[in-house]
Design a protein that fits this description.
Order of helices and strands: EHEHEHEHEHEHH
Radius of gyration: 17 Å
Number of strands: 6
Family: Belongs to the short-chain dehydrogenases/reductases (SDR) family.
Protein name: SDR family NAD(P)-dependent oxidoreductase
Largest sheet: 6 strands, parallel
InterPro entries: NAD(P)-bd_dom_sf, SDR_fam
Structural class: alpha/beta
Shape: globular
CATH architecture: 3-Layer(aba) Sandwich
Helix content: 40-55%
Keywords: Oxidoreductase
Pfam families: adh_short
Strand content: 5-15%
Length: 223
């Protein structure tokens, strides 16, 4: 992590999958609302560009070039949040693996395993690590639905993404009547992201909702 111990007036916001797309747009939006953003992604260049935009707009961020599929790195991240910031006010989870579209009998074992790891096991592990930190601040965990379960050729992505949201809904139900943290699940409009381009390569991207506009809608409705 870059050395920055600042916490914004609105608190600390963690964005996993922050280097591009909706994650980057949410990070910028949160920084504009006064949060200090802890931005996690594997792509160092994307994080640095995000940091430049946040700082140019008067916000603050700490960059964490980490792989969310590395449990030791995620443990280190959680420990750093506890020791440096004393808790977590918001977690937006946008990290995802988009396996290639494929008929179900032809899904490769490698693509399936990576999808299960990134989309489901990582989510389970992060929930366990971050719930205590969110409870300390009465924070919010945010997940983003993208329903493709049961659609042809979406076997790997649709199955694991829907399982991720099912896990988030269980956590949401478990915490609904408790004082403290809350879990929010949103279904964003189609956006011109790199993930969507893999699924719909010939689509008219001009007709899609810009990530920045969708991030602003999400933050207005969820915060």
């Amino acid at each position: 992590m870059s050395e920055d111990n600042q916490t914004g007036a609105a608190g600390l916001a963690l964005v996993t999958g922050a280097s591009r797309g909706l994650g980057a747009a949410l990070a910028e939006g949160l920084a504009a609302k006064g949060f200090h953003v802890l931005a996690v992604a594997r792509t160092v260049g994307g994080l640095e560009e995000l940091d430049d935009r946040i700082r140019a707009a008067g916000g603050s961020a700490t960059l964490a070039p980490m792989d969310v599929t590395n449990p030791e790195a995620m443990q280190q991240m959680a420990e750093a949040i506890a020791s440096r910031w004393g808790g977590l006010d918001l977690w937006a989870h946008t990290a995802i693996n988009a396996a290639p579209l494929s008929p179900a009998p032809h899904i490769s074992g490698k693509d399936w395993s990576k999808s299960v790891l990134t989309n489901l096991e990582v989510t389970r592990g992060l929930i366990a690590l971050l719930e205590p930190l969110l409870n300390l601040r009465g924070g919010t965990a945010m997940f983003f639905d993208d329903p493709h379960a049961g659609e042809k050729f979406f076997g790997a992505y649709g199955t694991t993404k829907s399982a991720q949201i099912a896990l988030a809904r269980s956590w949401q139900a478990e915490t609904a009547r408790l004082d403290g943290m809350k879990v929010v699940i949103d279904a964003p409009a189609p956006m011109p992201t790199a993930l969507r381009a893999r699924f719909y390569p010939g689509e008219d991207r001009a007709a899609l909702t810009p990530c920045k506009a969708e991030a602003e809608r999400i933050l207005q409705s969820c915060l």
